[in-house]
Amino acid sequence: MLKTALARIFIAQGKPAKAIKLLTPLLPQAEELNQISLVIEMLALLALANQLQGQTDQALRELERALSLAEPGRICAPVCGRRQPDGGLTGPAERGD
């Protein structure tokens, strides 16, 4: 979806608030249409954007929800296929390394 690509650009540019503003109203629509892969991708992006804004609890809730949706079908790419250079939500501290 073009909107998720735009959200990625906003995140890469250090504009997480714009990504959140873009994705938040789209998430319920994707859920209503049962587009699980898209919902997972949006939740992962929202988690990253919220983490960048210092909203760690919200980020972890979104990541947890994305992982719980992904697990039954073993969908991994939207959640774990991309990683921030600094480790992001899957950095050593969060993984327990």
Taking all Cα atoms into account, the compactness measure Rg is 12 Å
Query: For the report, how would you describe the main beta sheet?
Result: none
Question: If you average the pLDDT, what whole number results?
Answer: 83
User: What is the rounded distance between the termini?
Assistant: 34 Å
H and E order? HHHHHHH
Notes on the structure:
The chain is an all-alpha fold and 97 residues long. It has a single domain (2-83), classed as Alpha Horseshoe (Serine Threonine Protein Phosphatase 5, Tetratricopeptide repeat). Helices cover 68% and strands 0% of the residues. The longest helix has 17 residues, at 36-52.
Features:
disordered C terminus; 7 helices; globular; mainly alpha; Serine Threonine Protein Phosphatase 5, Tetratricopeptide repeat
Task: Sum this structure up briefly.
The chain has 97 residues and is mainly α.
What is the element layout, followed by pairings?
Layout: H1 2-12, H2 16-23, H3 26-32, H4 36-52, H5 56-70, H6 77-80, H7 92-95
Helix pairs in contact: 1-2, 1-4, 2-4, 4-5
